Amino acid sequence: MNILSPENIGLLLQALGTTLMMAVVAGIGSLILGVLITVARVSPIPILRGAAFCYVQFFINVPLLALLILAVFALPDAGLILPLVPTAIIVLTFYEAAYVAEAVRSGINTVGVGQVEAGRALGLSLAQSFRYIVIPQSLRAVVQPLGNVMIALAMNTALAAVVGVVELTSQVNKINLVYAQPIEIFTAAGLVYMAIALVIGVSAGWIERKVAIVR
Fold it and tell me: Which residues lie closer than 8 Å to 105 by C-beta, 6 or more apart?
């Protein structure tokens, strides 16, 4: 039996596609949600600040695997039934958004308060000051940290295998059960994940150089 048979390669490519799709969709969702949480976190409205703080603390301190298991097995009992892949994407999005929010908040702290005050003096509302002054500058400062969050997200997609999602790690494990060659099979899978991380890291570095402000 050939481990590199067309059938196995097809299954692995399909599983890799699922992994990449989950990472991209959850990555985009977590970036959007994370920025919104950050805005709430620095909002002058106490309720929004408190809710954002609780959100971040919850998702940072609860293991992702526990959240995946809870979503897959508890939500159907509550009457909410979703396919496995969308469920995993939603959990990954909410989980990684907390880390995005912390990264962006650290970037906001690099923006001087005087710039916000200058915006207000020019007639901008607080929301407009954040939209046109604070958020653009803070995102420039956190490109590399956000890249690290996206790398972690790509690696975390492997945990979806535990709840039945047929992504790369899951498919590799299935093939290993047939051929019993764990060193070769899982080393190859590790190299694929390494390649994904390198692509994200290099892309983040390129974006960081492009958006850098020359002083």
Answer: 38, 41, 42
